[in-house]
Amino acid sequence: MTPFGARLRAMRAERDIKLKDMAKALDVTPAYLSALEHGQRGKPSRYFVRRVCTFFNIIWDDAEELHRLAQLSHPRVVVDTSGLDPQRTELANLIARDIAKLPDEAVEAMLAKVKAGGKG
Predict the structure, then answer these.
(1) 76, 89 in Cβ contact below 8 A?
(2) Which of 12, 17, 57, 101 has a Cα-to-Cα distance from 81 of 20 to 30 A?
């Protein structure tokens, strides 16, 4: 599941909206919406995110957060380490290989460190 897909699903559940009803309102198929929620589709377009914001009547900070999550929600990430030092290439490869096996605590700590810009 992607960050955008998780948030989309949570918003739908909070409002008790059926997937098929939301899909119809957004003029997409239920299969597409389900795949998006489960991280089986690429990141959504800005146009689609705007339609979701309109559907849920969200504005300002909440809309910006949804757009931010959409940008971070490509389920197949490619990391180009050409020109970087060997340690960064090794790190990228190890993360790619082992990300599914990392304990939640390790993921949370790494995510916090990266969000802080490597400080701390």
Answers:
(1) no
(2) 101
Instruction: Take residue 113 and report the two structure tokens written for it.
Output: 């460190």
In this structure, what token pair is assigned to residue 110? 């790494």
For residue 74, give the amino acid letter. Answer: H
DSSP classification of residue 45: P
Nearest residue to 5 via CA among 75, 99, 57: 75
The pLDDT value given to residue 76: 87
CA gap 9, 19 in Å, rounded? 9
Residues 9-57: pLDDT tens digits? 999 999 999 999 999 999 999 999 999 999 999 899 999 999 999 999 9
- The tokens for 9 are 């699903």
Q: Please name the residue that has the structure tokens 């020109």.
A: 83
Are 58 and 72 in contact by the 8 Å Cβ rule? The answer is no
CATH of 3-71, one of 1.20.1070.10, 3.30.70.270, 2.130.10.10, 1.10.260.40: 1.10.260.40
